[in-house]
What does this fold into?
Amino acid sequence: MKRTRSESMADNRGKLIAAARKAFADKGFADASMDALTAEAGLTRGALYHNFGDKRGLFAAVVDQIDTEMAGRAKARGVAAGEGWDALLAEGATYIEMALDPEVQRIVLLDGPAVLGDPSGWPSQNSCLQVTREAVEDLMSDGILKPVDPEAAARLISGAALNAAMWIAASSEPESVLPRAQEAFRALVEGLLARPVAG
It folds into this structure.
């Protein structure tokens, strides 16, 4: 059965993203060769330009894919931790922990901001922020969190997790930074609680 044009384009996009993901993880954005990765995908530079515009466009698609996967992993850990407050803490801690993953480190946390600018403007980060805001609003309506501005609280929680992850990624000793970052993240977020956590 003959594939439609849209199926063929989706397949090409998938091949390019997979090849680029490997190239950007192995070599970094600056040193990844477009000729090498298009050859790896079995496609031409023309296919890359048609689907993504340029190398930066392809990189943005890779970052979006990985960042979306990270959000899914954090959400799954949150669900496993329970509901409400426990879920919110587990999601943040998981996001920070993912900074130990070499692919996440290189592509999302180090090259991502350098190439794409402020992560708060990335579509994937905005969707994470929206989910965090909804969780914060629910916790406020249940009286668990102080009645502060929910968008401000969500932005500060998300920003703290992202900056902790970026600190770990940039560190020469990420394994030793992780527990310090997670402990400080938890202490910061607990400051939003309406009542102190029982010892």
Notes: Residues 143 and 194 are 7 Å apart (CA to CA). The two ends are 65 Å apart (CA to CA).
